[in-house]
Amino acid sequence: VSGKSYLTFDEFAEVLSTFFEVPRPYVQPDTVLSDDLGLDSIYMLEVLLLLEDVSNHPVPDEVIDQLGTVADVYHYYRLYNEQSAEADS
Amino acid sequence: MDPAETTVASFDGRRVRLRPIRQSDYERIRDEELSAETILIYRHQGLTPSPEQHAGRLWAGVSVQFIVEDKHRKQPVGVVTAFDVDFRSGHAQLSALVFKDFREHGWPLEGVEIFIDFLFMAHGLRKIYGHSSAANFEQFKSALRGVAREEGRLQSHEFVNGVYLDKIILAIYREDWQGSKLTKNLAAAVAAAEQSRASRKEAE
How far apart are CA A52 and CA A44, in angstroms? Predict the structure, then answer.
């Protein structure tokens, strides 16, 4: 695995909390992006661009459709990081 | 000026690109504009122009207009339009339509970002206006975070689906746009946190 240090869920949630200006306690694994965090289309674009940065590939529509909660986003963040690390090694 | 210093317009984003509208796009655009979700709040305001009338109205008052296309699948996902351009005073009206199948996905909005960049760069505009129905505004409210200013609100202005809704007038100023685009780069924020985590680990 490459030397990249990806974030734990808590660290990831901390970044989301700061970035989206939502108090940290509201950013939990089951927090719904649209209803609970109030993420609009522009913020969803941010999430997508993050995942594309990590994966170096366009995120498929099927995956975009599954991005309902913070845990979903973190799952793909980890998965794409692991896949990128494997591809690099 | 050194030609190397001139800026070249880019129509390419990460996920989408802007391309000129072709005659073969007209039918798709008409279908989207006259769909149930769009007909009352977009260009034709509830009217149904014939295919021939539609082709004319598509360009009425319009100065710049592009198809937003998915770069990878070469598939149209929306239209961006600048109309009522006032070059003397340096402002224009902006509208954007994301096609129905892509509305939930967010990423076609990258086309709006590229378009605004182009309008400021190519036409030297000072200010770009956008109008939003209160019904739609929730989808774009984060644009107010540093990039768009609410400049007016017409109370109970539009009759949509049986109710009168406010119409919100937003303005994007060139100076605000240069310092802050629609997207603020969550990827960079995460990368910075990863970097800081790696440094901490190294120090341990």
Answer: 12
